[in-house]
Amino acid sequence: MEELTDNHLFGILLSVIVYYGGLVLRNRFKIKFINPLLVGIISIIVFLMATKIPYENYMKGGSIIHAFLGPVTVVLALPLYRQRKLLVKYKYSIMAGIVTGVVSSIISVILLCHVFNLNDILERSLVGHSVLLSELALAQHLELFRESQ
Predict the structure, then answer these.
(1) pTM of the prediction?
(2) Is the dihedral angle over the CA atoms 60, 65, 66, 71 positive or is it negative?
(3) Does the pLDDT at position 148 exceed 90?
């Protein structure tokens, strides 16, 4: 079993298979709350724990997928830019959604840190990280708004 899981292809195939499984579940049950990404994450965790496959083996391929996330994010900016007039039209709704996301992110991190008894330094670090990512999203939205005027 070690020779099957100890290569880059294992992590890539496992990720694609469980994501596709999540898509099938969502389409079959017609429930929009079934998120294929969340189904994939949970499935991978359960699979790795049940089979006692080391996380490091999975991440050999998972790191390749992770490396593509940055460029894919940039590619998604083009369709967003093309829809800038629509973004401007709904700017207050979008900003309210971002602010709500920031606040819920902070509250979630703080609550989870208390549930798992994490120390204060780690809690502050995680809160700062969640706020930073949300601020980057808000800054990108505001930049698109300025460019469209």
Answers:
(1) 0.58
(2) positive
(3) no
